[in-house]
Amino acid sequence: MPAQSSSSPTPLLNTVLDSIGIDIISNTLGPGQVFTLQDLCERFDISRTVAREVMRALEQRGLVTSSRRVGITVAPRSEWSFFDPLIIRWRLEADTQRTAQLHSLNELRMAIEPLAARKAADLATPEQRARLQELARELYQLGEERKGNTNRFLAADCEFHGLILEASRNEMFNGLKGLMNLVMETRTHRGLQPARPVPGAMDLHVQLADAIALGEADQAAAVAREIIQEVDSTFGL
Fold first, then answer.
1. What is the pLDDT of residue 8?
2. Which of 18, 30, 74, 158 has its CA 20 to 30 Å from the CA of residue 151?
3. Residue 62 CA from chain centroid, whole number
4. Distance between CA atoms of 25 and 77, rounded to whole angstroms?
5. Residue 66, CB half-sphere, CA atoms under 13 Å: how many?
6. CB neighbour list of residue 166: distance below 8 Å, 6 or more residues apart
7. Which long-range contacts (CB under 8 A, 24 or more apart) does 227-232 make?
């Protein structure tokens, strides 16, 4: 019996999928453009099985349609699943799409986070309120130490904003944590996050945590909105 390869096809699939996905996202492969499974096989030196998996993954995200008669056709942007994490990641990786995607995500934050902060002020548990204050003060200290562009700062910032969504007790808000984190992760990993955050930005996080801890719903919503506006201003979104 021939020995089986110990390597998984998944890394290869992901590599090809990322390459084609970014080509579509960046308009290198524009709407209406047609390619075939054979094109994928020849371009990436892959089997038809892997090529079919790539096609299915693209179809599931609304990026392409396929038919035996025509082949694989790039779909118009109106058909794309813009909430899909892969599409968001591809847009953040594409130079021509990054700013637009960050802007869209920040607008989503503006629509969600102030309301989540308001609800958290009313509904958060004592443990959640205390943890938010701990995280806010950790962020402040890391900023003072010029560590705003470190993974430690990123982890605390993601936990802080994610905990507000969780404390709102709205499962739909909580389900958006991963998307919200992408904004902060991209700023850090793309070198956009300064070592020393904008003066006052970390103060706002402390104010937000304190407002939630004290049950001041209106103040919490107002400060959450101010934090997001500061991000808009700082990063030119």
1. 42
2. 18
3. 19
4. 9
5. 17
6. 128, 174, 177
7. 227/113, 227/201, 228/106, 228/109, 228/110, 228/113, 228/114, 229/110, 230/198, 230/200, 230/201, 230/204, 231/106, 231/109, 231/183, 232/106
Q: What is the pLDDT of residue 122?
A: 98
Residue 161 to residue 181: CA distance in whole angstroms: 8
For the chain, what percent of residues have pLDDT higher than 90?
Answer: 80
Domain annotation for the chain: domains and CATH numbers: 9-79 (1.10.10.10), 97-235 (1.20.120.530)
Task: Give the DSSP H/E element, type plus range, for residue 71.
Answer: strand 71-74
Average pLDDT over the chain reads 92
pLDDT at 200 over 80: yes
- Count of CB atoms within 10 A of residue 231's CB? 18
Tell me the HSE value of 231 on the side-chain side, using a 13 A CA sphere.
23
Output the six-digit token pair for 22: 């970014």
Report the distance separating Cα 79 and Cα 156, nearest Å: 36
Question: In terms of pTM, does the model score above 0.90?
Answer: no
CB-based contacts of 123: which residues, under 8 Å, 6+ apart?
Answer: 167, 168, 169
Q: Is 194 left (phi over 0), alpha (psi -120 to 50) or beta?
A: beta
Torsion angles phi and psi, residue 98, rounded to 5: -60, -50
Cα(174)–Cα(187) distance, integer angstroms = 21
- The C-alpha atoms of residue 36 and residue 190 are separated, in whole angstroms, by 34
* Tokens standing for residue 108: 């989503």
Backbone angles phi, psi at 155, to 5 degrees: -60, -45
